[in-house]
Design brief:
Length: about 450
Amino acid sequence: MTSADEENSYIDYETFLSPTFSPSSFANSLVLGTNNPTDTPLDLSTPLSRVLFDAQEINTHIDTLTTKSALPLLSHTQDQTESSQRIVQEIDSQVASLNDGFKRLEKEVLVRYETAEEVQTVASRLWETVRLGRVVARCLQLGRQLEIQLSEIGNTGAPVKVPGAKEDHKALVRCSNTLLNIRELFQKSGPGEEGHGLERIEVVRTLQTSIINPAERVVLSRSQQLIREFSMSNLSSSSNTSTYAQTRDTKERTDSALKTLYLLSSASGLNSKNAKKLNWEPDLLVQSLQDYLRTALTSSLASLSRALATLPTLDRTLLEVSARCQNLLALESLLASIQPPAHPNLPSDDMAPANFLQPLLTSLETGSLPSYFWRTLAGGLTTKVQEIINKGGVSARTLRSNRNSVRDAIRECVVKGSRAPAGITALKGEKKADASWEREVAVMVGSVMGPLGR
């Protein structure tokens, strides 16, 4: 619309074009302009006619403008349409070129990529098969090696000795190292580790149930049997004494058994983060030694109880008790002299004990095996003597009447048992004179004399 048309038109275009235009406010102003606010009812026909007339006027202006500008608008639209068609034609040619390029790339790249991906999948599966085959072969090789080493053990530590059977106690240590290698292989079962997927192989499961597990039980039982058979005392009711060769053989057998139990002790749950915070204890080793000590105490307590009830057997029984204590003294010296071998499952060498004696003393909360033996034996002996006294009879009267000789015999028993046997060097803290064992003597004598009274 031209400025002349705007001047001739009575429509207030500025009001309608204002950003703050409000239809409700405009309608209200029309109603108030054509009516008196006090009139009832209001006449709405006049403002409505005004609005309709304005709308008709605007429509007329639009028709006039459209009629005058029809040809320029059509020409402009035609030009735009032709330009758009030319652009579409150019785009179509470019799209066709892109499609041809994509098909060429698909043939040259995508097809080759899919082929390469298939080859990669096949190669990775073949590599996994080869890896698993190598692990299975290594596992079978270790199993065969374990079989050979197990046969080398022969009669070592067997409960029933076969005359002329070959023995090699060092094969126990070799077996334990092989078992550790097999354990390590089975423990590395995570994705990407050496033993991943090994448990799914039937031949490996058969190997584990038929060879590995039985072999481990045999090695453990033979080692524990050697510990139970340990004896180096030169006190005996018979006249037989151990020769130097026998003493050395006993030491070597026990050394192999101790190292085997140490290596096969569980070291699971340890890692480098908590290695310095935890005190690792070789459970199999400590348990076997505790069983040996417990057996010596139980046997000594039972035999002493019977001997105190029948005094004629007391001297022989006390000699046997002294021999057991000498064996403990020899075992203590041997444990202190053995340096633990390297344990592959320990995350830190600092966790390994200085010697085999340290974890045993720590578990028993004592500083000496002979002292622990005498004090524990005395603790149980008091109850047994009290039972004899309470029963009364000939045994109680005989024990009371021979209390002095019994006291001297017990004292001599402690002194003899606290002397290191031949071929054994006592520990530095236990190279005592006979008078230095007075505490143990007093405890043992008191355990018997106390219930007897004066």
